[in-house]
Automatic annotation (TrEMBL):
<protein>
    <recommendedName>
        <fullName>WYL domain-containing protein</fullName>
    </recommendedName>
</protein>
Amino acid sequence: MSDPRLKLLEAIAHKKIVAASYNGATIRLAPHLLFQRHGDLFLSALNLSKNWRSEDEKQLGQFKLAGLATLELIDENFTPLPSYEAQPPRSDDVLVLGV
């Protein structure tokens, strides 16, 4: 499966972590939501590679799918953030899939 959209749909549906190259760095993401904005696909995900000061500080980042390279599924599950709601960030965004 080489299509990154299909990999992300599988990752969201099965709550699997993904690894991707983003801005030249390899990051691990817990994908919570895939949505469309102005014809482009975006991912709302928790960046597991980021050093968070506390559990309460953790929040989802938004990543343009076109900017994620070498996307790979990792055989490791994640638990969605307690504050997560399956809603796109903006009212004119279109939900594709959420956990």
